[in-house]
Design brief:
homodimer, Ubiquitin Ligase Nedd4, Chain: W
Amino acid sequence: MKYCSECGSETEKRIPEGDNRERDCCKGCDLIHYTNPKIIVGTIPVKDESILLCKRAIEPRYGKWTLPGGFLENGETVSQGAFRETLEETNTEVEMGELYAIFNVPQINQVYMLYLAKVIKDDFSATTESLEVEFFNEANIPWEELAFPFVPIALKNVFADMKKNEFPLTTHTIERRK
Amino acid sequence: MKYCSECGSETEKRIPEGDNRERDCCKGCDLIHYTNPKIIVGTIPVKDESILLCKRAIEPRYGKWTLPGGFLENGETVSQGAFRETLEETNTEVEMGELYAIFNVPQINQVYMLYLAKVIKDDFSATTESLEVEFFNEANIPWEELAFPFVPIALKNVFADMKKNEFPLTTHTIERRK
């Protein structure tokens, strides 16, 4: 941040009175601009023993496979956001289940919240965000072609949990290579 | 938002190409400024059958009682943020437990994530953010003096769960009066 979004004056980084962190503060109107982590919501769309994955049609990781998900939008609940992102990336309306995994990615100020979901229709298809949308079982997951570090962790967990038919919430922290 | 935080030009609200929501877009450098929900992290600090509450020393709801919590900061995991907020508001380092409740408050673009925590030291005290810090059991909770709608919901749930000694994660959506 270089300029105040409210008055257009220059901003500076300093610790405001009563605070203990550096913030972007306006030199003109004194407004403090806080930035905080963002929530990424998504699903693990399941049918029988298979999971619906999307081949990314957008950067980053164009052409790699991922679980449907994206930024939670203002005005949404986390579950609504996960449902919407799944619809936008797979064209199918899933039946939402329980929160299954939380991934902290503190180096990029993101928190992922992944829900279990059931694929209940056969209308899934490619979208503007996904080149292909396809079911994979444990044996044919493209392990070397997954988009983000959280994807193989979530997939391995869910295939293991399917065998036990128990799906406890787990929390993970991903440290990215510097 | 009135001005671009990167170049200082005026911004306008419009739907960017390929998007389906109105965003603040810069008329000068074309940058799109996204705003997304924020995460509030907190704890339910328990000792025996009692819960540690804080009397707010800051607005909003100055003088009302609440559970310790606040905005997740960049670079933190949700659990780290909940621990830090509890320390800042009660002066005690709790032993963090499991995620216990999620509260969506979509009208103000907030998601609360509340963790169970054990109070393991007797060093809790008032802070710059809390006028008083005090244990309450179910019988003497100041039900009429609680700060926010999520507080009585979380407290009633946890006192009920204590009797069963089972603490399943629950998710709630709070619709605020318009």
